[in-house]
Amino acid sequence: MSFQAYLDTIERKTGKIPQELVDEAHAKGFGPGTKAGEIVTWLAEDYDLGRGHAMALVHVVKNGAGISDKHVGSTGTHRDESDTLRLDGLANR
To answer: Lower CB count within 10 Å: N or C terminus of the chain?
Structure first.
């Protein structure tokens, strides 16, 4: 599953676009220095997200929308179309 696919699934499951969840995380004080487990616990308790999906959001909360270009343009299951994740929701594509 691509990084973007994880975020898209999170949106379908929670009803919130990724940017809304990132904003909520930042409002709670989560950011670059936050341990991943704290964010994972919040997402599990409030949104019933599993660890894999939560870790995708952890990356965005801590590092922003940029990702490694390792899989960009590849043909594997983990390929992404861009090294910048879309946080503005499925309806905006």
So the answer is: C
Cα separations (Å) of 88 from 6, 8, 36, 56, 84? 14, 10, 23, 15, 12
Diameter of the chain measured on Cα atoms:
38
- The structure tokens 């599990």 sit at 44
Q: Kindly tell me the burial class for residue 18, based on how many C-beta atoms sit within 10 Å of its own C-beta (0-12, 13-18, 19 or more).
A: buried
State how far the Cα of 35 lies from the Cα of 38, in Å rounded to an integer: 6
The Cα 23–Cα 93 span in angstroms is: 20
pTM: 0.91
What is the per-residue DSSP string for 49-70?
--HHHHHHHHHHHHH-SB--ST
